[in-house]
């Protein structure tokens, strides 16, 4: 048995995978069973006996809710799948488990009943209807398909699904009954990963499977740059004007230095992330376009020029970052502090975010940054720990976590922020573990974006992550407790940064 843990996956892709898997088994090309566990974007599915009249909303309402409709070859009537619902597709050869369809359905119900019991919910079967119930409300729908005793389709357990979608249908064609979720019953949603692990354990026990392999099955995305990776177009005059101002003040932005795809949009809105301490970095990270080489002497007048340009732009929010300067005793912390001080003098109401290097873990350098009292301190972990030796060979994952933890411990009023890139070859489970690590050290705000290789000399893109997978990361971050998260193909660490600060203002007022 192989268990494939997927993230948020388009329904059509899930169906095509099942169809191909069953076909492969019938032709003798595949000899193992599989259990696919995933979530779907909003979709209403009609089974073989489903009646279109049980979809209560018209096409306009469904379109407004972003919900598609699919006719499928499973048993049952109409149901809904969406984020926050754990869907399981057991792809089994029932000749190995007893050729009894009714017994198979009862086993699936038993898996869910045991899972819910472990989470403090007493659920039962119903004499009239399939599925798993809590009182008169269904918490898990079951609808299966079968070809030559090879099973497909399966169950859908509501963990933290948006139950309002069920008002668009007559769920399972049953009137006078309701739909519920674990979150509704418990008052809070258990983590999807925890429920998924519990389901897997009970599935193996109920079906008597002693050996199974966990695999990072997933919606893989594209290997050719897809259509959704297009930056927002803005007039060349905005970019030209911003470059003119940067030349006037002899300043650099990370927008240009890092080849950011959003440079046109940000420059058009007169925002930028200023990069201080020169344009040459002392580290050789293999993902970054910032030049590496002989560093320049620290420009003592730079903080004042940054403040003057910020004032001229009339900004409400500014991000200050730097190249990594391991050659300096304090890593450049004092220069950050001076820049913050000069900005405060000219623009006292401005919200300041600093995107800092790790300062090699020196707490004295972090103390300097904290003492300058920026509203936000951002330090990116950049990727999962398993890829550090390849992506950030001169950095250390635990050290980066320690930086964020130190800031939060010693200045809890400061918003802590971090970000990662995806598409470097990481798995969804590894991303989930990294997000959990960040929350465990008190990180408040998160960005997740697609890695784009700046040149052929940099690490190549392993895959282009589909928007649906970013939605899955967005929901996971919400469940973990980040107060603000931005996940998307073109999201970058400082992209629309001011939007991430506004929730904190209301939270602390």
TrEMBL record:
The keyword Lyase does not apply. It is found in: Cytoplasm. PROSITE patterns: BPL_LPL_CATALYTIC, LIPB, RADICAL_SAM. One of its GO terms (molecular function) is metal ion binding. This is Multifunctional fusion protein. Substrate binds at residues 74-81, 141-143, 154-156. Pathway: Protein modification; protein lipoylation via endogenous pathway; protein N(6)-(lipoyl)lysine from octanoyl-[acyl-carrier-protein]: step 2/2; Protein modification; protein lipoylation via endogenous pathway; protein N(6)-(lipoyl)lysine from octanoyl-[acyl-carrier-protein]: step 1/2. Binds 2 [4Fe-4S] clusters per subunit. One cluster is coordinated with 3 cysteines and an exchangeable S-adenosyl-L-methionine. NCBIfam families: lipA (TIGR00510), lipB (TIGR00214), PRK05481.1 (NF004019), PRK12928.1 (NF009544), PRK14345.1 (NF010925). The keyword Glycoprotein does not apply. Its cofactor is [4Fe-4S] cluster. Pfam families: LplA-B_cat (PF21948), Radical_SAM (PF04055). It comes from Pelosinus fermentans JBW45. In the reaction, the free carboxyl group of octanoic acid is attached via an amide linkage to the epsilon-amino group of a specific lysine residue of lipoyl domains of lipoate-dependent enzymes. Belongs to the radical SAM superfamily. Lipoyl synthase family. Belongs to the LipB family. GO terms for cellular component: cytoplasm. InterPro entries: aa-tRNA-synth_II/BPL/LPL, Aldolase_TIM, BPL_LPL_catalytic, Elp3/MiaA/NifB-like_rSAM, Lipoyl_synth, Octanoyltransferase, Octanoyltransferase_CS, rSAM.
């Amino acid at each position: 048995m192989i268990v494939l843990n997927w993230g948020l996956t388009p329904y059509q892709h899930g169906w095509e995978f099942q169809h191909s898997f069953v076909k492969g088994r019938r032709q003798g090309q595949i000899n193992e069973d599989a259990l696919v566990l995933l979530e779907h974007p909003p979709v209403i599915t009609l089974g073989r006996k489903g009646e279109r009249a049980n979809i209560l909303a018209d096409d306009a309402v469904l379109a407004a809710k972003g919900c598609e409709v699919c006719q499928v070859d499973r048993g049952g009537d109409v149901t809904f799948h969406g984020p926050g619902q754990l869907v399981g597709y057991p792809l089994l050869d029932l000749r190995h488990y007893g050729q009894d369809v009714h017994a198979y359905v009862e086993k699936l119900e038993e898996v869910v009943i045991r899972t819910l019991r472990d989470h403090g919910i007493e659920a039962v079967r119903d004499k009239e209807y399939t599925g798993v119930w809590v009182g008169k409300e269904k918490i898990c729908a079951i609808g299966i398909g079968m070809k030559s005793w090879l099973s497909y389709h399966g169950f859908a357990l509501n963990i933290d699904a948006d139950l309002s979608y069920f008002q668009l249908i007559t769920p399972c064609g049953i009137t006078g009954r309701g739909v519920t979720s674990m979150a509704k019953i418990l008052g809070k949603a258990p983590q999807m990963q925890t429920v998924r692990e519990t389901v897997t354990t009970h599935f193996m026990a109920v079906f008597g499977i002693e050996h199974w392999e966990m695999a990072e099955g997933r919606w893989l995305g594209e290997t050719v740059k897809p259509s959704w990776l297009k930056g927002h177009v803005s007039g060349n005059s905005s970019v030209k004007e911003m470059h003119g101002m940067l030349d006037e003040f002899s300043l650099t932005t990370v927008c240009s230095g890092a080849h950011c795809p959003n440079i046109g949009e940000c420059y058009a809105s007169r925002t930028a992330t200023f990069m201080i301490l020169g344009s040459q970095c002392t580290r050789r990270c293999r993902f970054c376009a910032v030049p590496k080489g002989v560093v320049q002497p620290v420009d003592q007048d730079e903080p004042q020029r940054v403040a003057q340009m910020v004032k001229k732009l009339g900004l409400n929010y500014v991000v200050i970052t730097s190249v990594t300067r391991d050659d300096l005793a304090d890593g450049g912390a004092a220069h950050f502090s001076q820049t913050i001080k000069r900005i405060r003098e000219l623009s006292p109401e401005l919200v300041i975010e600093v995107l800092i290097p790790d300062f090699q873990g020196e707490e004295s350098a972090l103390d300097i940054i904290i003492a300058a009292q920026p509203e936000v301190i951002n330090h990116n972990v950049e990727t999962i720990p398993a890829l550090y030796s390849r992506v950030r060979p001169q950095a250390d994952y635990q050290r980066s976590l320690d930086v964020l933890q130190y800031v939060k411990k010693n200045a809890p009023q400061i918003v802590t922020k971090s970000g990662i890139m995806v598409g470097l070859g990481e798995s969804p489970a590894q991303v989930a573990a990294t997000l959990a690590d960040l929350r465990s050290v008190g990180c408040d705000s998160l960005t997740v974006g697609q890695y784009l290789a700046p040149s052929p000399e940099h690490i190549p893109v392993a895959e282009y992550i589909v928007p649906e997978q970013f939605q899955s990361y967005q929901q996971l971050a919400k469940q973990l407790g980040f107060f603000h998260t931005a996940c998307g193909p073109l999201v970058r660490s400082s992209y629309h940064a001011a939007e991430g600060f506004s929730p904190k203002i209301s939270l602390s007022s």
